[in-house]
Amino acid sequence: LQPLFKMSHSCSKAGDPHPGQPYKGGNFYAFLPDNPAGLKTAKLLKKAFERGLTFQIKSCNGEERVTWAFIPHKTSLDGGKARNGYPDAQYLHEVGTVL
Questions:
Q1: Model confidence at 8, in pLDDT bands (50, 70, 90)?
Q2: At CA 29, angle to CA 26 and CA 6, rounded to 5?
Q3: Residue 44 gets which letter from DSSP?
Q4: If pLDDT is split at 50, 70 and 90, which confidence band does 3 have?
Q5: Which of 4, 17, 18, 72 has the fewest CB atoms in 10 Å of its CB?
Q6: What CA–CA distance (Å, rounded) separates 8 from 61?
Q7: Is it the case that residue 1 has pLDDT exceeding 70?
Q8: What are the φ/ψ torsions at residue 67 (nearest 5 degrees)?
Q9: Where does the sequence pass through the membrane (predicted)?
Q10: Are strands 4-7 and 26-29 parallel, antiparallel or unpaired?
Q11: Per-residue pLDDT averaged across 79-92, rounded?
Q12: Which domains does the chain have, with CATH numbers?
């Protein structure tokens, strides 16, 4: 599976680092295996997204921008755990624990 999150440019709200300030969005990719465990994880990630837990706004080099929040995502098909990619035999267990 290849979920794609398209986060638009907008203005931050109360609770963000600088409420009312514009921030940059972006395209975010995440990869899951196409198997029962991957599908189960996709459903949990969807719930987390709907609850506003997937992304956060951070200040980076003087500008506000959307970044991943604390839920780990696999953003590459290779490179292993060190590069947020596969192979990583523990990923589904680890993300399931966080979710």
A1: confident
A2: 35
A3: H
A4: low
A5: 4
A6: 19
A7: no
A8: -135, 165
A9: none
A10: antiparallel
A11: 92
A12: 2-98 (3.30.390.130)
Hey, which bits of 15-95 come out as E strands?
Answer: 22-23, 26-29, 55-60, 63-68
- Chain center to CA of 45: 9
* pLDDT at res. 45: 93
Residue 38: CB partners within 8 Å, gap ≥ 6?
1, 32, 92
Q: Which residues contact 86 (CB under 8 A, 6 or more apart)?
A: 31, 74, 76, 77, 78, 79, 80
Cβ proximity of 74 and 84 under 8 Å:
yes
Q: What is the spatial distance between Cα 7 and Cα 90, in angstroms, rounded to a whole number?
A: 28
